[in-house]
Each structure stands twice: as C-alpha cells, then as structure tokens.
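Supplementary Methods. Inverse-folding protocol.

Structures were first reduced to a discrete structure-token string of length 219. This string, shown here, constituted the complete conditioning input.
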C-alpha cells in the first residue's frame, strides 16, 4: 500500500514537472494568402465598331439618351427611363402616346409607347390608317437590356430629331421599353458577368422569380 501511494505521488509529480518544463505552445498564426488578383476574371473586351455607330447622337445633342451619354457603359434605371420618355412624349405629343399596360407585382407601371404619324397615335386612328403595326418588346430579361436603349434612340430619331421620321409613313410602332420592370430594378454587377455591358444590369426573372419569356401573362 505504501509502495502504491509513493508510486502514485511520483507519477503525479513527474506530470506536474512535465507541465512546468514543457515549452509554451506557439501562438496560432492564421495562414497568409496572397491578395486577390486585381485583374478582371474575363479577358478584356475587344474593340467594338459597326454601322450602328452612325446612329449614336453626338454628346451635345439635346436628345441624347442616358445610355449614349455614358458611351453605353450604363443603362438608365426604371425611373430615369420613364422620365426621359415623358420628356420625349411632351416634345412630340401628336406622334407619341404613353400608355400603362398594367402594374407589376411590386406596383410599377409597365409602359408602352405608341408612335405614329402626326395625329394618328390614338387607337381609333391606328385602326383607320391601315398601316402595319410593329410591336417591339424590350427588357423581358432585364439583364439583356440593349433593346431598351436602342428603342429610345429609335423613338427619338422618328420624332424629336426627325432623322427617321419616314419610318412612321410606312408603319405604326408600339414599343414596350421594359417588360420585366421589377427584375430591371434588381440591378447588380454580377447578373451577367459574361455579357458585354452594361456595367450594372437587371435580373432575368421578375419579382416572383418567374421567367416572363416562358409566360408573358405573368408580368
């Protein structure tokens, strides 16, 4: 019994000695990582050129569109788009009418612009003039928004600037600039990173996460 007690005391003593004599554990140093590369993930954009450059308004044009003003780096927000269209309609009231097709799930108007020859932009006049009616719908996938910006340019050229007014002699034009208005306002830099601009764009689906390109009636 005495031997057992002495042996136990010896073991405990050696354990305490080991604790005292053991070197302190090194403080934990988190691993070091190289900073994220500053270069973009995708390759640089190739220079763009084409016949459509001739349609871009000069910087001093009073009817330059918001997208043209930024060299197409940015597309205007819903409110900016509507404000610009209201100014255009006020400048050419005999040729343009602005009509709400209804409200989105988040309460935004889905606007349509009616463009026709002078005094022919009403439903009655459109029926009587016998011309084809061309409907252009943009922004159904709001990340792919170039149709909206091109449509603003076309409306401007057919009315306020007059460089394409002859088109309204041949047809009536109905233009929905943003069909997916709620998705348009869910703007992000990361919605379509593989797309050539704009820098910030809207979302593919609407506020109910529905793809309107599969069912137009759910706008």
């Amino acid at each position: 019994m005495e031997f057992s007690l002495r042996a136990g005391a010896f073991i405990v003593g050696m354990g305490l000695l080991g604790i005292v004599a053991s070197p302190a554990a090194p403080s934990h140093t988190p691993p070091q990582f190289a900073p994220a590369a500053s270069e973009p993930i995708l390759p640089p954009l190739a220079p763009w050129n084409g016949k459509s450059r001739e349609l871009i308004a000069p910087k001093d044009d009073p009817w330059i569109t918001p997208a043209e003003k930024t060299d197409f780096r940015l597309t205007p927000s819903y409110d900016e788009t509507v404000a610009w269209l209201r100014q255009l309609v006020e400048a050419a009231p005999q040729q343009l009418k602005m009509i709400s097709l209804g409200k989105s799930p988040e309460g935004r108007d889905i606007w349509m612009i009616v463009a026709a020859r002078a005094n022919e932009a009403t439903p009655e006049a459109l029926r009587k003039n016998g011309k084809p009616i061309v409907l252009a719908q943009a922004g159904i996938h709001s990340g792919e928004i170039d149709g909206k910006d091109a449509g603003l340019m076309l409306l401007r050229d057919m009315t306020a600037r007059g460089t394409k007014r002859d088109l309204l002699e041949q047809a009536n034009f109905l233009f929905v600039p943003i069909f997916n208005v709620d998705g348009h306002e869910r703007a992000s830099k990361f919605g379509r990173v593989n797309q050539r601009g704009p820098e910030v764009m809207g979302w593919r689906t609407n506020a109910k996460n529905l793809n309107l390109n599969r069912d137009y009636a759910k706008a």
